[in-house]
Each structure stands twice: as C-alpha cells, then as structure tokens.
Amino acid sequence: MREFTEEELAECNGKNGKPAYIAFNTMVYDVTDSFLWRGGRHQVLHEAGKDLTREIEDAPHGPDLLERVTPIGILKRVTH
Amino acid sequence: MAKVTREVVEKAGVNVDQLVELLVKNASAELTTFYYYTILRMNLIGLEGEGVKEIAETARIEDRNHFEALVPRIYELGGKLPADMKKFHDISACPPASLPADPGNVRDILKVLVEAERCAVRGYSQICNMTAGKDHRTYDLALAILNEEIEHESWFSEFLGEGPSGHFLRRGTTSPFVSKFMM
Question: Above 90 in pLDDT, residue B183?
Fold first, then answer.
C-alpha cells in the first residue's frame, strides 16, 4: 500500500478536481466517489485531506462506516 | 431574518452559518427522500411489498413534513433555500434513496429505506448535539424530527428481521412530534 505524508494527504482535499482522501488511525481512505464527501466536505464540518481520527470521536457514527470506502494507503506520521 | 434570534444563538457559541448550512442540507435530504420514496412506494407490490407499503407511505409523508418544518427555521436564522432545484438536490445531507437494481426485491428496497433513515438519524443527532443548551428552538425542532426518524428506522429494521421496532404504526395521523412546528 502507498504511504502518504501529511502534506501529500493535504493535497488530496477533493477541491478543484483533486481526489478526496481522508485518514483514520493509520489508514488512508479514498472518499472521492462518496455522495457524502462531494467537494471534499462532509456534513459541513469535516474536510478531506486530513487525519480525522479525533473528529470521528464526536461524529454521530463510528469508524465502521469507513468499511464502505476503499482503503488506499497508510499515513506516515512525523514524530517530533 | 429574526435578527435577535440569530444574535442570541451566535452568542451562545453556535456557528450559525454552519448550522444553517446543515439545516439546508437536511431540508434537501427530506424533500429528495420524499421524491425517491414515492418511487420506492410504487414498487412495493405483491404479497411482500404490500405489507411494507403503508409504513413507506407514512415515512414519505413525514419526511415531507420535516422539510416543511425546517424551512421556516432556515429563514429565521438568515439562511435561504437554493434557487436552483438541481443544486438543492446535490447538496443533500444524505445520498439519493434510489430504486435498487431489482425493484421486485422487497428486501433490497427495505435496505434502501433503512439506510436513508439511518442517515437522517445521524444528521439530526448531529444538529441536536450542536444546539443542545444553546439554540433551544432549533434543538426542539431537530429533536422532534429525530424522534420520527428513529421510528421510521425501527419500522424498516423490524421488516429486515433485525428485531422488534418496539412500537406500533401510526393510527390515522402523521408526524406526532413535528406537527407542532407546522401550524
């Protein structure tokens, strides 16, 4: 699987024809074709191109819904 | 726009622009679901389908009621509906509840129905979470709609064999929770 840096992930924000990718835990998912991620936004509050691991804690659904989208890579986190 | 209403909600810490956008997206989901459910209901036929038709019809009418109840709140808060119906469809908070590939398969139709209701339950839970203790009127409205969406979900879920819904179908009237917003 492809490895993504946070910068590479941020490029895939679903805007201006770019693909929409999101990360949860260590996985990167392609949500480009999801109706719920049109334009790289989800339910007004969430943006593609980001690690949403924390945001999903406050969402009205669990990470199980990510099983409906395709995992395409692994997020490489930089530790400082 | 109800100027003081908006100010009070903003002062309570709600991002009103985000809230209005969510309300518009959910209003779209309700109206488009009303449309798609019309098609689903038409295809609920035969020995199996007829048993589901009545609850699909109740859910369809109540989703239209939800649209009607949401619109005044959108305008009170300074929002508006898109002028373009096509745009309105495409910003829906939920995917289209499209007729499945095999329209004769009642179970497939039930899966579409229950998914639509689950999307709505998530959406109104989010609005309730955003507005609880801050925007009492939107909270009251979203909670009323949520109550009905939960019942819709449980009806369809029961028919899918996921367990008892826990309550009876409507008797004569629709929208027992939302009707107070439709005076």
Answer: no
List of chain A residues whose C-beta atoms are within 8 Å of the C-beta of residue B122: 59-61
pTM passes above 0.90: yes
In this predicted structure, the answer to whether residue B2 has a pLDDT above a threshold of 90 is no
Q: How far apart are CA B53 and CA B68, in angstroms?
A: 23
CB atoms within 10 A of CB B39: 13
Instruction: Give the β-pairing of A70-75 and A2-4.
Output: parallel
Chain A environment of B22 (Cβ under 8 Å): 43-44
Short-list B112, B106, B105, CA closest to B32? B112
pLDDT confidence band for B171 (50 / 70 / 90): confident
CA distance B171 to B154: 17
* Chain CA centroid to CA B59, Å: 9
> How long a stretch of residues is chain B?
183
Burial (CB count within 10 angstroms: exposed 0-12, middle 13-18, buried 19+), residue A80: exposed
Interval A24-38 mean pLDDT: 95
Give ipTM to 2 decimals. 0.86
